[in-house]
């Protein structure tokens, strides 16, 4: 076919014979027509390199061991690609070969992409699973316990699906008194992922505003079985994050037992089927009644046994208290008698009387000593007074002597060297005083 396409160009041997020269645009246009005609629908296998996404369009290259083929996938085509295109990924690309005139290059315009050796949906599932697992969305420590026998249950599912019928049938059969709230959601097709995520978020908003007694206690996100394409909405990241962010515990029951979705891995608990989810949250009323009877009987017997045991222990304890009290009384009586004897021996009354007598005797001795001391000191005083009187200059004055003082210092004059002419003198006699003035000093 390529050989036939090449006939588009007439055979020309020389410029002189043909008389025509092609422009670059003509050559690239003709090459474009040939390539697009010859390779309008092709599958190409290669490894992705130089990947870039600009304005929603994917630009990359497909390479093998010896060649590289530029590729472009426009946004209208790549929106259906579920997996993440990245360098090193081996792909099967379907499209057509085209030439790009402004650069004189050729490329493949990709319309479909499939990973080599694995379906596209399966690869997308594995990629998202790896991403969310690294972020910790599947960790057991984030799983919340499912409440036992909740009073209000919410279902996130389609109103027309088989799942809601199965769940309501099980709930009605096992515990018809439960309050069930249905948050309708599209569970398949375009827009299903947003519908499911919005229903989950809506129930959480409802719980924030509702009184505590009216709040939803557990949520079942569910749908019946189907192909991987049918269940794909439950493998979307937006649904996984809505489940992870939910304040209401979530049970995921998607498809059949063999089907495991991202929603199952993120939820607080996975149920194999919708019916199994209903059985998890609602034990049979008859079983509960029977269990309640059994517990009541066991409780009654336990209380009786406890009462008897308590009575026996109380009697034993009372007897022990009596014995202990009697022993304590006997010991205390003995100690009291011994203490009374010791107190009698140590009674301070006799000692006080003895010491009072001693104090009286000491008082008598002290008074005698004081009186003797006083008489002694009185005699000494009289003798000293007599001596002082004998030595008093006033007594000398009585024998005709006198004492002269210099005024106004009132100093006794012992030598004429202390006097000057004009000084005032006072002479003290036995009776009276004489005042005089110095007119002359000699000696």
CATH class of the largest domain: Alpha Beta
Radius of gyration: 64 Å
> Topology as H/E string?
HHHEEEHEEHEHEHEHEHEHHHHEEEE
Which fold name fills CATH's third level, the topology of the largest domain?
Answer: Rossmann fold
General form: elongated
Q: Please name the CATH architecture of the largest domain.
A: 3-Layer(aba) Sandwich
Instruction: Show unreliable segments.
Output: none
CATH superfamily of the largest domain: Succinyl-CoA synthetase domains
Characterise the protein shown here:
The chain has a five-stranded mixed barrel. It contains 13 helices and 14 strands. It folds into three domains: 2-117, Beta Barrel (OB fold (Dihydrolipoamide Acetyltransferase, E2P)); 126-283, Rossmann fold (3-Layer(aba) Sandwich); 392-443, no CATH class. The protein has helices at 2-6, 15-18, 24-38, 75-78, 120-135, 162-174, 192-209, 237-245, 262-266, 274-281, 285-345, 348-391, 393-397, and strands at 42-54, 57-63, 68-73, 90-100, 105-115, 152-157, 179-184, 218-223, 250-254, 269-270, 403-407, 411-412, 424-428, 433-437. The model has no long low-confidence stretch (mean pLDDT 83). The longest helix has 61 residues, at 285-345. β8 (218-223), α8 and β9 (250-254) form a beta-alpha-beta unit.
Task: Write a compact overview of the structure shown.
This protein is of the alpha/beta class. The chain contains 13 helices and 14 strands. The protein has 3 domains: 2-117, Beta Barrel (OB fold (Dihydrolipoamide Acetyltransferase, E2P)); 126-283, Rossmann fold (3-Layer(aba) Sandwich), CATH 3.40.50.261; 392-443, no CATH class.
């Amino acid at each position: 076919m390529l050989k036939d396409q090449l006939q588009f160009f007439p055979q020309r041997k020389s410029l002189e014979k043909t008389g025509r020269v092609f422009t670059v645009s003509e050559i690239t246009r003709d090459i474009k027509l040939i390539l697009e005609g010859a390779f309008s629908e092709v599958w190409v296998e290669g490894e992705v390199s130089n990947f870039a996404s600009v304005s929603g369009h994917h630009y990359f290259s497909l390479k093998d061991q010896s060649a590289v083929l530029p590729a472009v996938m426009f946004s209208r085509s790549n929106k259906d690609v579920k997996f993440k295109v990245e360098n090193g990924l081996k792909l099967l690309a379907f499209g057509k070969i085209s030439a790009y005139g402004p650069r004189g290059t050729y490329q493949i315009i990709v319309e479909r992409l499939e990973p080599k050796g694995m379906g596209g949906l399966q690869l997308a599932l594995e990629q998202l699973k790896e991403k969310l697992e690294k972020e910790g969305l599947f960790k057991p420590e984030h799983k919340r316990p499912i409440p036992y026998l909740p009073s209000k249950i919410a279902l996130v599912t389609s109103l027309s699906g088989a799942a809601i019928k199965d769940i309501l049938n099980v709930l009605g059969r096992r515990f018809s008194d439960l309050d069930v709230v249905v948050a309708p959601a599209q569970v398949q097709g375009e827009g299903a992922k947003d519908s499911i995520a919005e229903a989950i978020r809506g129930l959480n908003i409802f719980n924030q505003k509702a009184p505590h007694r009216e709040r939803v206690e557990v949520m079942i996100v569910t749908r019946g079985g189907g192909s991987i394409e049918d269940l794909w909405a439950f493998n979307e990241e937006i649904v996984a994050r809505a489940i992870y962010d939910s304040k209401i515990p979530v049970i995921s029951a998607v498809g059949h037992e063999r089907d495991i979705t991202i929603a199952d891995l993120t939820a607080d608990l996975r149920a194999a089927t919708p019916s199994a989810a209903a059985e998890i949250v609602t034990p049979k009323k008859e079983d509960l009644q029977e269990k309640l009877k059994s517990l009541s009987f066991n409780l009654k017997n336990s209380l009786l046994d406890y009462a008897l045991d308590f009575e026996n222990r109380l009697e034993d304890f009372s007897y022990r208290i009596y014995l202990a009290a009697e022993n304590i009384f006997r010991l205390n009586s003995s100690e009291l008698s011994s203490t009374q004897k010791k107190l009698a021996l140590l009674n301070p009354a006799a000692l006080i009387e003895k010491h009072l007598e001693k104090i009286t005797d000491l008082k008598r001795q002290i008074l005698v000593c004081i009186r003797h001391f006083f008489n002694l000191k009185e005699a000494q005083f009289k003798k000293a007074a007599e001596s002082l009187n004998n030595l008093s200059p006033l007594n000398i004055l009585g024998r005709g002597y006198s004492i002269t003082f210099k005024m106004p210092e009132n100093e006794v004059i012992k030598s004429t060297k202390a006097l000057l002419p004009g000084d005032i003198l006072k002479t003290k006699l036995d009776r009276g005083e004489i005042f005089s003035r110095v007119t002359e000093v000699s000696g």
